[in-house]
TrEMBL record:
SUPFAM superfamilies: PH domain-like, Second domain of FERM. This is FERM domain-containing protein. Pfam families: FERM_C, FERM_M. It comes from Daphnia pulex (Water flea). CDD domains: FERM_B-lobe.
Length: 210
């Protein structure tokens, strides 16, 4: 089947001029929250859910109606089911907020989530440790696989070359003034196809945002 999804995540989606484009960003980021590919803290998830409900169903008229709205969603993050009273309280605070304003607030908050707009690829470093390499419009970043904490990043302006050979992917970094040679950082992927896909996605992101 064919999926129609956002490919390039702009830094501030709430300022997109086209209404339909903003709506697609809204739907796509919510989908990523629901399926777990955009992890958030419980507090942030509850806040974003309240904005999502406000932008989708409009102002709350009763707690009973909102419980029905939540149950009618195709799927919701587990943290939402565990914190329904918090969601209802937040919805009460948003009762005067328009649908358009709620959508804008959702986008303005979701862009601050650490992994917003980051395309993650599982790789192994030079020591054979499993990590994740994240591609975004800003840079290439390295994340711990266990908790998605960023441990390093490479700005696009510092990257001279990206290339792959068989299952290995390489980043050639511009040397600093005190260094004599450029630095090349290598990673190992599960297959040659995965290495090529990582390289392709890096080139596309860099070309689009540079």
């Amino acid at each position: 089947h064919l999926n129609f999804e956002v490919k390039y995540y702009v830094e501030n989606p709430s300022q997109l001029l086209d209404e339909q484009t903003r709506w697609l960003f809204f739907l796509q980021t919510w989908k990523k929250i629901v399926n777990g590919s955009l992890p958030t803290s419980p507090q942030t998830c509850c806040l974003l859910t309240s904005y999502y409900l406000q932008a989708t169903f409009g102002p709350i008229s009763s707690e009973g109606e909102d419980l029905i709205n939540i149950s009618n969603l195709e799927s919701v993050p587990i943290v939402v089911k565990e914190n329904t009273p918090v969601i209802l309280e937040l919805r009460g605070l948003l009762k005067e907020q328009s649908i358009e304003r709620a959508q804008t607030n959702f986008l303005d908050h979701v862009r601050r989530v650490e992994l917003y707009g980051v395309d993650l690829h599982p790789v192994k470093d030079g020591k054979g440790k499993l990590i994740q390499l994240g591609i975004s419009g800003r840079n290439l970043s390295i994340y711990r696989s266990s908790n998605n904490v960023r441990i390093n990043s490479f700005a696009w302006c510092k990257i001279l070359r990206l290339f792959y050979k068989k299952k290995r992917f390489f980043i050639q970094l511009q040397h600093e003034k005190f260094e004599e040679y450029d630095t090349v950082v290598g990673f190992v992927l599960p297959t040659k196809r995965a290495a090529k896909l990582l390289w392709k996605n890096c080139i596309e992101q860099h070309s689009f945002f540079r």
